[in-house]
Predict the 3D structure of the following.
Amino acid sequence: MDFLRGDGTVLLMVKVTYFLEVISSWCHWAEPSWAEVKQRYAGRAEFEWKIALMSPEGYPASAHQCEWFYRRSGSIVRSPYLLNAGWFEPDIKQYLVPNFLAQAAKDLGVADDRVRLAIAQAGLREGKKVGRWDVTLNVAAAAGGLDAAKLLARAQAPETASAAQATTAEFHALQVTQRPTFLIENSIGDRAVFSGIARAEPLSAAIAALLSDEAAYASWKAHFGDPPGR
């Protein structure tokens, strides 16, 4: 994972992959940390988010249970507001709509955070029924400046489901269960995985450590070159 400057010299960088479910409350609480490390390490780290779909069993069983979870997580993170469980519908067992629309927007070129954050805002803060295509499509299209018909067609295409399932398989391959999960890697093979962590401090420390290790290897190579064959 080498990144080259215009003069051909190597620019040291790490890659940070954020595995998320669009309407996960803990992903919502992690967003300020994600924004903070992106800003702090801009130009020194590559950042990407990927969908990690939850199984039907991962969602609340009722609006009452959802509200209990929100009171618990909100108090743990010292939030000044309570999340809104109004998005919950007992007949929807897996909330593919918000995730597929976020994935589709990404595939159409809007790879930043704005579409998925707008969907999360609509559901978790405003209580909109984001499990419905007609509700979430308008939110996603407006946030991404995308044509609604093209976005819907892409979101409902088999390729989008396949992409979401592939990144979910990447998530499971890490042998973790919690969302958010952050995978931090550098070009010399160092890896750090944080699962269920919503705070910026450990993420920042790991990024700094992997950057430092990579710089040390670059210094060694500058002084001694490639290792001898034998």
